[in-house]
Amino acid sequence: MTAKEEFISIYKENIKREGADKLLEFLMKSDFFTAPSSTRFHGAYEGGLVQHSLNVYHCLKDYLSRPRTKELYGMDYSEETIALVALLHDICKVNFYTVDYRNKKNDETGQWEKVPYYTIKDTLPYGHGEKSVYILSGYFYGEARLTREEAFAIRYHMGFSGVEDKNTIGRALEMYPLALALNVADMEASYYLEGSDK
Q1: Residue 33: C-alpha distances to residues 27, 28, 114, 179 (Å)
Q2: What distance separates the 2 farthest-apart alpha carbons in the chain?
């Protein structure tokens, strides 16, 4: 099964709220399934974004299933909530990267060659986590809207890697356990499963 097929399968099986079909249509027409997850670090290759989203999903499922985690959080999250926040936390990266070219010396031949690389072309400069929440709010609204905890989890999934005030981040992670759990899953996927040298 390809990463795209796995993503669609998990998405359709778990995310049932109104607007989910339209959002999936948007993803299918966008570069979500071919985009990288970053320009130089984790998932900096074609299809890196969908693979990263799946990695975060599996890490979050694993993290939330641990007995100690359940004891700490004191609540269970629905399969829909877990799938939604994990698979869509980085929807802000849709149509965000572009391919450019630069010259690089080939170590074997000693010749200069034109090679592709990813660069950022942000047409909606609205931050990171907050942009993902904003995009999702265009599809999930009314009764289907994100819960407050889902919105905060997506907004603060970067944790202390974010650029905002550290006190605000700390308070959000303290108030919304799902935000902390998603941050842990995102860091595990980014640095241990993917990394810049993987």
Answers
A1: 8, 8, 25, 25
A2: 61
